[in-house]
Amino acid sequence: MDESRGQPTVSELLGRVAVRLRQTMEIGTETDFGGLTPHQARIVGYIEANEDRGIIQRDVAEITGTRPASVSSLLQGLERDGWLERRTDPSDSRRKTLHVTDKARALVKGFEQRTWGAIESRIDCFTDEERRTLIALLSRLDRHLAASS
């Protein structure tokens, strides 16, 4: 908190909002992950959102902070159960990229619809003009963070 003004800082507010939105998402989606654990569902969602970038096993290990051996086992299970597939990278035959199946894509889309719907119902306190301003500011922050990572 900014002691001089007695008001929270932008980073504090972003942190609070992030926590509250995560709580809203958990309530809005209940726990229907199509038989997947929440961890598996997040990995499937990450692969679905980034598969056009040529995601490989090492990328999943890095974003989850998980040991490569654990990721290998997890991905083998997801592949065996029909959630994802590995394909040979056309530019490097030694490299296997990860891709979701239609079954996984449908799960992700349904999850996103429930999640975004739950959030939309919680942010109805803004006018149309305020929403446009918020979208512009958050989009700018998102681009900045993406360029920094």
Automatic annotation (TrEMBL):
Residues in a coiled coil are: none
Record-linked SMART domains: HTH_MARR
Entry keyword Transcription regulation: yes
Q: What PROSITE patterns does its record include?
A: HTH_MARR_2 (PS50995)
Q: Which Gene3D superfamilies match?
A: Winged helix-like DNA-binding domain superfamily/Winged helix DNA-binding domain
In its UniProt entry, the species of origin is given as: Microlunatus ginsengisoli
- PANTHER family hit by this protein: HTH-TYPE TRANSCRIPTIONAL REGULATOR MHQR, TRANSCRIPTIONAL REGULATOR, MARR FAMILY
- Domain of life per record: Bacteria
User: Where in this chain does the record put each HTH marR-type domain?
Assistant: 7-143
Query: What InterPro entries does the entry give?
Result: HTH_MarR-typ, MarR/SlyA-like, WH-like_DNA-bd_sf, WH_DNA-bd_sf
Keywords attached to this entry = Transcription, Transcription regulation
Q: What is the lineage of its organism?
A: Bacteria, Bacillati, Actinomycetota, Actinomycetes, Propionibacteriales
- Write down what this protein is called: MarR family transcriptional regulator
